[in-house]
Design a protein that fits this description.
Blueprint: H1 3-10, H2 15-33, H3 44-51, H4 56-66, E1 71-74, H5 81-86, E2 90-93, H6 102-105, H7 115-125, H8 130-134, E3 137-141, H9 145-154, E4 160-163, H10 171-192, H11 198-222, H12 231-241, H13 246-266, E5 277-282, H14 291-297, E6 302-307, H15 312-315, H16 326-339, H17 350-362, E7 367-373, H18 377-392, E8 397-402, H19 409-424
Parallel strand pairs: 1-2, 1-3, 3-4, 5-6, 5-7, 7-8
């Protein structure tokens, strides 16, 4: 038995079913990422991680657990990683981007629940995701009704901490979120046995800000007329950013950016000069959900920006550093994590449409694709306002709805190709 299988067995995973996933993923990965010769050489690290997504990082996490450290599995960009790091905890994202896990999720959830939620629950209940098996605590947030009820199921056999997110940004909402961060800080310190201090909070804020700067640098490269990296590669980097050690991730992203900046200087582009530039907005794209990027870029366009949780929303706006007290650090986290994230869960939420319009101009896009997962009422409903705003601004927009299956791939391709032809005229 190889090391990975031994680890998975020790974690109590369903090896037979998990092997089916392991057999399918390499082909899917190869079809999307290994069919092009224009990827940066420095993507080698991210390809290696993706090729062994359930092996490399989980093995590291298991070793850290043996040293007494605690692993926090998180679902959302509203959970402040800084709080976990400040208590000597480790953050990992959780599986939820594949149709493979959906049927198991549907054994306990309604079929008309969004696929991301069904996949997350299925990955845990089916014992086919090591990250779900490793986590000492799940940290959820009340961004939607589907998640809130799913957390009750996930919390039956693993400790679950839920952060109650206000649905506005009034002064009283900011205070409420500060209280939630404070409660989470107490909970994290209790679990790890190492309560956060002002020093560890400031250190963790600096670590996360460096990570944000590296990802912002990556996206800055994508603004260039000569696009030095495909949207598919950029998306993979963002997806791995949720799982990897933050300091190592920062170093690897900066390594990629060094190469991208040289490509820009050399006038090298992954796309034709007349390739339509596309911005994607809407629901997050959890690993291994690469479907829409692959369809767009194999149809002759290039994705230059994502305004979603697996895009700019993850790294935009830093947390104030060098705080003078723990309370000041909590206020800084509140400002960043509530005041500066424009999720569809807020009402009213004009800030998200403002962000999309601004990004469309900054990245000189030819069109926007508003992509929503089926049964995500938040983003689907807000799509009406977003798409109307973009039309008013004269920015072409295409609204799409999909799930994790491939059954609609050709229909999506037909609609995307028609959209690209329209904006090319």
């Amino acid at each position: 038995m190889d090391k990975n299988h031994q680890m998975w067995q020790d974690l109590g995973m369903d090896l037979e079913t998990h092997d089916q996933l392991c057999e399918a993923l390499p082909a899917a990965f190869g079809d999307v990422f290994l069919t092009s010769n224009d990827s940066p050489d420095t993507m080698d690290y991210f390809y290696a991680v993706a090729a062994d997504i359930h092996g490399l990082r989980p093995a590291e996490l298991v070793e850290e657990q043996k040293k007494g450290r605690k692993i926090f599995g998180t679902f959302c960009v509203f959970v402040p990683d800084e709080v976990i790091l400040a208590s000597d905890g480790i953050v990992t994202g959780l599986c939820g981007g594949s149709q493979f896990w959906v049927p198991e999720g549907e054994t306990v959830l309604p079929a008309n629940t969004c696929p991301l939620i069904k996949a997350s629950v299925g990955a845990r209940l089916g014992r086919t995701c090591p990250f779900f098996r490793i986590a000492d605590m799940f940290v959820g947030e009340t961004t939607c009704d589907g998640k809130k009820k799913a957390y009750e199921i996930l919390g039956e056999d693993v400790p679950m901490h839920i952060m109650h997110l206000p649905h506005g940004k009034r002064p009283q909402d900011m205070q409420a979120w500060s209280d939630e961060i404070r409660l989470f800080m107490d909970q994290a310190g209790e679990l790890t046995g190492k309560p956060a201090t002002l020093e560890t909070l400031n250190d963790s804020i600096r670590i996360m800000n460096e990570k944000r700067r590296a990802l912002a640098r990556l996206y800055e490269c994508r603004k260039n007329e000569n696009v030095p990296i495909s949207g598919r590669d950029a998306l993979l980097i963002m997806q791995i950013a949720f799982f990897d050690d933050p300091e190592r991730l920062t170093a690897q992203v900066n390594r990629v950016c060094d190469e991208l900046e040289q490509r820009i200087a050399d006038g090298k582009s992954v796309a034709a000069k007349d390739a339509p530039r596309i911005l994607i907005t809407g629901t997050p794209l959890a690993v291994p959900n690469w479907k829409i990027h692959n369809i767009i870029e194999s149809s002759g366009a290039v994705v230059v920006c994502e305004e979603n949780c697996t895009g700019t929303r993850y790294f935009t706006h830093e947390v104030a550093e060098d705080n003078k007290s723990v309370e000041e650090a909590i206020d800084a986290l509140t400002d960043r994590y509530l005041g500066n994230i424009n999720c569809a869960c807020f009402t009213p939420n004009p800030g998200r449409a403002d962000d999309i319009v601004r990004l469309a101009k900054e990245y000189d896009v030819d069109g926007v694709i508003d992509l929503n997962l089926k049964f995500c009422n938040l983003y689907d409903t807000e799509g009406y306002l977003v798409e109307r705003r973009l039309s008013d601004e004269g920015i072409p927009v295409l609204g799409l709805e999909t799930d994790y299956t491939d059954s609609d791939a050709e229909q999506l391709r037909t609609r995307v190709e028609a959209f690209l032809e329209m904006i090319a005229d």
